[in-house]
Amino acid sequence: MLEDIAQKIAASTSEIVGHEVIITDERSIIIGSSDPSRLGDFHEASVQIIKTGKPNPDTMNIDKMEGTKPGFALPIELFNKNIGSFGITGEKEKVKKYCYLLKKYIETMLYQEMYMKSTLLREQAVKNLIQEISVFDPKKSDESYLLSRGHELGYDLQPPHIAIVVDLFRFEEVTKQIYEKAEGQQSAEMQIQSFKLDVLAIIQRTFRKPNDLIAAMQDDKFIILPALSVQFSESRVIKEIKDKCLSMISEFETKGFSASIGIGAIAKNINELSQSYKDAWRALKIGKKLNASPGVFFIHDLFFEDLVSSIQKDLSKRYILNMLTTLQEQPDWEDLSKTICAWCESGFNQKNAANMLFIHRNTLHYRLNKIHEISGIDLKNYKNAFMLYLAVLMANMGTPEV
């Protein structure tokens, strides 16, 4: 770890103190130097400094030591172990004060570096665990292995869980704006990293139980696997999870961005959690197709839409062409399609449908008649209305070219 930052520290501190600076590893080999020609040299004086943990004594004969110049040197300590040394060339009494100050600076940097690396390793381990859960197959894998992996990271995967996917809304636009306003690429990347840390902090504040798994799977997508109590009410859990997700979106919006969120089914074991993970992604995908704005999409609310999305592509395309071609040619097709959906989703109730569309009932009546005249389908016939509604739903969800 010292090797990773030694040269940068030696060069930067030399500029500050105005003296030559070296850093050695625990073998007394120079790994950082303001004079690059000394890199890789053996620094004999450091052998005793690292061994004893004390600065070079006045009795040390510097002139006869290999690779050593007059000055002052101290050991670099990490977790009560001397892992190298730090020295400044010059008159001992003049450079001594700098050495003690810079020793603390170097050791602090090493602690921070170690903390960051251990944090990144843990985050990657949690991400890997979630990925293994997502592809778990009880016919091919042993559940006890994942339970053990979870315990190693401090998580108990035996209680019920539920999968949640957070997808930042228009993330590319957010990053583009950051790059446009930032002074240079490095500044922009730091701002984007800070932005993602803000998102993660909000998620962690919302789902803060020790047994809640959270990981950033992509730059703009996060996975949450909250643990549930063993004895739970499904309706209460669903409400609580939805409320927490809506709360997260509200907090995101105070920061100037938003998100769409997919929620899977409650899982009582690893196999069901794997399915919940897949369901959360499906809920997100379907919800985003049917809604232009951010929202919270729960798979249990989208079972019908999920079923529709599984219909064969060529069959779906033919059905849409057969049912909607004449209607889609109309300039007010968007209004007509919304009317069909509202009519069916309101339970074929004129008052409720008009309220859903924010229009007068006379306007609704006009649109229903227009749809009948153009398509030949009477929306007051429930079967016909449902057939048309199904076609609109297929069209809204998108039908790829065959």
Automatic annotation (TrEMBL):
Span of domain PucR C-terminal helix-turn-helix: 337-393
Putative sugar diacid recognition domain location: 3-132
Pfam family, one: HTH_30
Homology family: Belongs to the CdaR family.
CdaR GGDEF-like domain ranges (all copies): 141-286
Name of this chain's protein: GGDEF domain-containing protein
